[in-house]
Amino acid sequence: MAITVEKKFVDSMFSLAGKTAIVTGATGALGGAVAAGYGFAGAKVVASARSKDKLEAYAYELKAAGIEATSFAADPASEEDVKALVKAAVDTYGEVNILGACHGFNAPKNILEQTTEEWKKIMDADVTSIYLLAKYVAAQMAAQGKGGKMVITSSARSKMGMAGYTGYCTAKGGVDLMVQSLACDLTTQHGINVNSINPTVFRSDLTEWMFDKESAVYQNFLKRLPIGRLGEPSDFVGLAVFLASPASDFLTGGNYDATGGYWAC
Ligand SMILES: NC(=O)c1ccc[n+]([C@@H]2O[C@H](COP(=O)([O-])OP(=O)(O)OC[C@H]3O[C@@H](n4cnc5c(N)ncnc54)[C@H](OP(=O)(O)O)[C@@H]3O)[C@@H](O)[C@H]2O)c1
Q: SS3 string of 170-188?
């Protein structure tokens, strides 16, 4: 039987060499790991977040680690900022090949206490921002005519509700469906693969308290996690690089689990 897989392809199937990646939420736990992961896999990285000082400090870290990187402060829920971010990436590196959307926001509150303004803030930060990034990055990728990859950070909470999470669960559920619709709009015609990742709890400044092994929250979580621990930012990188790389060329419109087996038992 003839071998149908080329060694050359397998040798480089996870490489992002020669690609330019925009990573939003780059100052966060997951975005920071993804920016470094993409950079170490060979991509030129345009790191983005809203807080300029923190962002510039992190871009400095990336460069010190040998990664070709620049930073551009932008609010992903602002249409003008997103246009400027894409333009900055093109001005600096010539094109955009990968979008790693890793920003996000939640302000948990029971619906009876939540204001409509607070709901809208979650929708803007978590849904409108993804729409705007997808729209302007896709326009750039389509103009380049070489396809591209979009890797959108959603949440396991896109698949189930939770008290106080009316906004966040709805937003992330919307993101997963947006990813499926984007695949229908962008993959056949423009060769742009769009997928999302659905994490459970990964260590960040906001979730650090959940890592207290003595706490009831930790113990309860562990009952549903065959992997036996919560996630570290580095655990997120493999799937993020895979979905940005040639190894995932056949995948689009998917919502991929990064939970340590949360749905298994
Ligand atoms: N860590 C987890 O356990 C976990 C679990 C499930 C899903 N997620 C999702 O994973 C993504 C990254 O989470 P993370 O844990 O890395 O978060 P993080 O450490 O808190 O970082 C959040 C990032 O998003 C930016 N950001 C914060 N508020 C924002 C807003 N209102 N609009 C736009 N950007 C905002 C922050 O920078 P600036 O404030 O400077 O913009 C920062 O770069 C989010 O989409 C989150 O919902 C995380």
A: HHHHHHHHHHHHHHHHHHH
